Task: inverse folding
C-alpha cells in the first residue's frame, strides 16, 4: 500500500491520533453559519425549484450581511453586523437541515436574533417559531478552554416549500477582527449580498479572491454622510468539497475587507491595510510578556543545556524538550487566542498552545544566551494568502519560533511533537512567516523540505514457492514521511499492527505479514525503520512452462487520478521520493526469457524511473517515484492524470520465467 493511502486508512480506524493541533487565531471571527462549505458546480434557470436544482434538498434564497461602522463620542470605532438569511426546502424526501447555528464569542457577541419557519397555507403565509433554541460550546479536539459557542435553532413544521428565516445582530469588540464574506457555499444560493456602511471619516478597503470583480453587482450610495457599498451576486451554484484539498480558500470566491484608518477631530487613526500596521497590532500582544525573569525556568534551562557546546546544540535540546514535555492544549477565550502566556506559567503547567510553546522556547533561549530566537506569526497551508495580499489577522492562524543564525533561519514548531530540529512542520511549508525583530519585523518564506530528505525506501528480497511469494524487507521512512507516521500512530499500541500492515501491504489482498520489528520509532533524528517477513499467495501467474511475475509489488499513486468533476487544488502535504528495490531469486531449473525495458519520465509534477537487471541467479528491479510539486491546481489535473497513465504502464510490466527444456 502506498504511503498516503496508509495515512488515509489510519484515519478511518479511529486511532487516538496525537497529531498536534493548530491554534487558529482568527477562526473564531469567521462567524459563518456552520452549514456552509465546498466547491463550485453549475445550474440553469428553470421555473420549478426541483427541476432547476436537481439533487438539492434545500437552497438559500437570500443571504445578506450588513456591516454598520461608526465612530463614537470617545473616538472609538463601533461595529455591528446585521444578518438576514432565508432558505427554502425544495424536497419532500428529506435531506435538508432542520438546524441552523450562529457562532459567537466574547469578542463578537450576539445582540439580538429571530428565527422562524414560513409556510404558505391557502395562499397565506403562516409563521412558526423555532421549536428549540440552545447555546452550547463548540466542541473541537484539543481546545481546552474557549468562549466560542454555538447558538442553535431547531426549526419546526418543515416540508417542501417551507422557508427557514434567521435574523441576528453581532457586535465586534475589536475592529481588527472582521469577517470574510463568502460568495458561494455548500448550498445553491439565489442571492448573496454584502453591505458595508460607514461615515466619510472612515476609510474602507477590500480585496477579492477567486472571483472577477466584473461578475459582481457593486454599487455605492452616500446618504446623510454615510456611504454604503454593496456587493451582490445572484444564481450561485452549490459547492462541494474534494478529498485531499489544500483548503476551501484556494478556489472559493470570497472577499476580505478592513478599516484602513479613520478621522477624529484631532487625528488620523491608522488601523489596517499594510504589514506595518498589522505588525504594530500583533506586537502589542507580545511586548509585555516575559518581562520578569523566572528563577526556576532559568535554572532548569541552564541545567538542561549544560553539556551543549554550541548555540545550535542548545536550541536543539530546548526544542526537543518542549516537543516532548509541553502538551498541546488550546485556549481561546477572548484575547487568549492571541496573547502568549508567560513562559514560567507554561513551564509550571506543562501544557499550552502554539503561542505558549513559542513563549517558552524564546524565553529559554534567552536564559542560555542564544540570540535572535523570535516570535513568528504564520499561516498554515490551508490559507493561500501572503502578507502583502492580505495584511489583516485573517492572513495567518499559527505561531512558531524562528532561530536565526548567520542569516540562516530555523523554524521551530513544537506543536508537531515529531518533526526533527531544523526541519519545518509539514503544514507551514511554503508559507510566509512574519518574524518579530523587536519593534521591526522580517517576512521570510518557509522552504519546502526537499523530496530526497522525505525519502521512503523499501528493500525487498523474494523467492517463489509455486504461486506464492515469500519475502523479507526493510522499510524506512525519513524526514516528514517519518514524522507523519509517528504522528498518526502516536502511542496507540492497540492499532500498531494494523498500521504497520497497512504501511507494508503489497501485491494483492492475499498479503500476509508474518512478523515485523520496528526501530527508532521514538527517535525523530533517525529514520523510522521496519524489518519484516511476509507471504503473498496467488500472485504468480503460470501458463504451461512459463511463470509471469510482476515485480512492482508496491504501486504508489496508481489509484490517484483526479475525477473529471474535481475542482479543488490537491495537496500532497510534502515532497517525497519513494524508492524500491525488489530482488528475486531465480528458481533452479528456470531461465529468464523476458525482462522489461528500463524506463524514465519527468515533468513538473512527478518523476519516475524503472531499472531491471540480472546478476547470476538474481533479478533486480530498482524503481522510484518522486513527487516534485506539493500543490496541484485544477489546471494541472490533466497533466497529472496523463503522467499517471505512463506510470501505470510500467506498473503492469512482468518478467517471464521459463522452465529449462532439459528439466
Result:
Amino acid at each position: 500500500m502506498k504511503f498516503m493511502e496508509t495515512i488515509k486508512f489510519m484515519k478511518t480506524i479511529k486511532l487516538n491520533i496525537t497529531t498536534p493541533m493548530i491554534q487558529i487565531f482568527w477562526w473564531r471571527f469567521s462567524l459563518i453559519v456552520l452549514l456552509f462549505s465546498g466547491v463550485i458546480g453549475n445550474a440553469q434557470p428553470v421555473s420549478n425549484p426541483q427541476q432547476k436544482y436537481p439533487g438539492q434538498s434545500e437552497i438559500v434564497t437570500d443571504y445578506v450581511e450588513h456591516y454598520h461602522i461608526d465612530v463614537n463620542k470617545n473616538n472609538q470605532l463601533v461595529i455591528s453586523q446585521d444578518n438576514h438569511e432565508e432558505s427554502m426546502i425544495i424536497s419532500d424526501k428529506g435531506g435538508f437541515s432542520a438546524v441552523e447555528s450562529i457562532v459567537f464569542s466574547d469578542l463578537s457577541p450576539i445582540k439580538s436574533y429571530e428565527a422562524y419557519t414560513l409556510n404558505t397555507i391557502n395562499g397565506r403565509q403562516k409563521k412558526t417559531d423555532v421549536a428549540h433554541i440552545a447555546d452550547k460550546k463548540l466542541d473541537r479536539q484539543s481546545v481546552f478552554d474557549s468562549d466560542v459557542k454555538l447558538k442553535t435553532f431547531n426549526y419546526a413544521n418543515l416540508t417542501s416549500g417551507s422557508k427557514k428565516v434567521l435574523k441576528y445582530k453581532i457586535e465586534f469588540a475589536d475592529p481588527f477582527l472582521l469577517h470574510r464574506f463568502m460568495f458561494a457555499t455548500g448550498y445553491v444560493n439565489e442571492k448573496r449580498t454584502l453591505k458595508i456602511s460607514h461615515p466619510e471619516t472612515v476609510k474602507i478597503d477590500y480585496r477579492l479572491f477567486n472571483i472577477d470583480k466584473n461578475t459582481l453587482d457593486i454599487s455605492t450610495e452616500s446618504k446623510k454622510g454615510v456611504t454604503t457599498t454593496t456587493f451582490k451576486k445572484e444564481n450561485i451554484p452549490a459547492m462541494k468539497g474534494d478529498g485531499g484539498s489544500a483548503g476551501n480558500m484556494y478556489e472559493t470566491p470570497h472577499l476580505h475587507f478592513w478599516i484602513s484608518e479613520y478621522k477624529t477631530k484631532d487625528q488620523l487613526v491608522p488601523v489596517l491595510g499594510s504589514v506595518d500596521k498589522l505588525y504594530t497590532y500583533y506586537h502589542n500582544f507580545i511586548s509585555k510578556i516575559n518581562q520578569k525573569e523566572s528563577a526556576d525556568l532559568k535554572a532548569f534551562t541552564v541545567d538542561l543545556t549544560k553539556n551543549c557546546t554550541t548555540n545550535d546544540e542548545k536550541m536543539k535540546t530546548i526544542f526537543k524538550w518542549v516537543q516532548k514535555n509541553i502538551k498541546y492544549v488550546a485556549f481561546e477565550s477572548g484575547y487568549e487566542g492571541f496573547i502568549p502566556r508567560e513562559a514560567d506559567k507554561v513551564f509550571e503547567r506543562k501544557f499550552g498552545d502554539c503561542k505558549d510553546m513559542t513563549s517558552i522556547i524564546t524565553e529559554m533561549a534567552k536564559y542560555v544566551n542564544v540570540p535572535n530566537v523570535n516570535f513568528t506569526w504564520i499561516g498554515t497551508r490551508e490559507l493561500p494568502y501572503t502578507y502583502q495580499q492580505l495584511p489583516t489577522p485573517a492572513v495567518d492562524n499559527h505561531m512558531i519560533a524562528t532561530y536565526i543564525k548567520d542569516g540562516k533561519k530555523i523554524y521551530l514548531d513544537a506543536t508537531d511533537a515529531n518533526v526533527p530540529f531544523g526541519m519545518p512542520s509539514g503544514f507551514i511549508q511554503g508559507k510566509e512567516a512574519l518574524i518579530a525583530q523587536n519593534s521591526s519585523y522580517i517576512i521570510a518564506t518557509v522552504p519546502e523540505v526537499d523530496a530526497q530528505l522525505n525519502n521512503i525506501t523499501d528493500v525487498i528480497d523474494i523467492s517463489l514457492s509455486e504461486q506464492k511469494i515469500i519475502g523479507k524487507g526493510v522499510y524506512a521512512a525519513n524526514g516528514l514521511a517519518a514524522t507523519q507516521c509517528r504522528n498518526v500512530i502516536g502511542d496507540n499500541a492497540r492499532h500498531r499492527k494494523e498500521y504497520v500492515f497497512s504501511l507494508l501491504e503489497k501485491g494483492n489482498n492475499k498479503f500476509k505479514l508474518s512478523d515485523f520489528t520496528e526501530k527508532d520509532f521514538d527517535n525523530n533524528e533517525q529514520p523510522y525503520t521496519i524489518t519484516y517477513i511476509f507471504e503473498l499467495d496467488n500472485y504468480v501467474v503460470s501458463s504451461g512452462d512459463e511463470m509471469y511475475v510482476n515485480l512492482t509489488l508496491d504501486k504508489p499513486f496508481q489509484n490517484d487520478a483526479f475525477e473529471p468533476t474535481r475542482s479543488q487544488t490537491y495537496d500532497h502535504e510534502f515532497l517525497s521520493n519513494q524508492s524500491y528495490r525488489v530482488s528475486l531469486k531465480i528458481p533452479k531449473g528456470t531461465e529468464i526469457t523476458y525482462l522489461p525495458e528500463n524506463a524514465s519520465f519527468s515533468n513538473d509534477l512527478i518523476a519516475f524511473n524503472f531499472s531491471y537487471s540480472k546478476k547470476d541467479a538474481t533479478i533486480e528491479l530498482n524503481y522510484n517515484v518522486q513527487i516534485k510539486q506539493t500543490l496541484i491546481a485544477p489546471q494541472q489535473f490533466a497533466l497529472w492524470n496523463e503522467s499517471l497513465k505512463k506510470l501505470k504502464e510500467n506498473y503492469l510490466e512482468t518478467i517471464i520465467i521459463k522452465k529449462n527444456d532439459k528439466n
About this structure: Confidence is low (pLDDT under 50) at residues 7-46. Residues 146 and 332 are 4 Å apart (CA to CA).
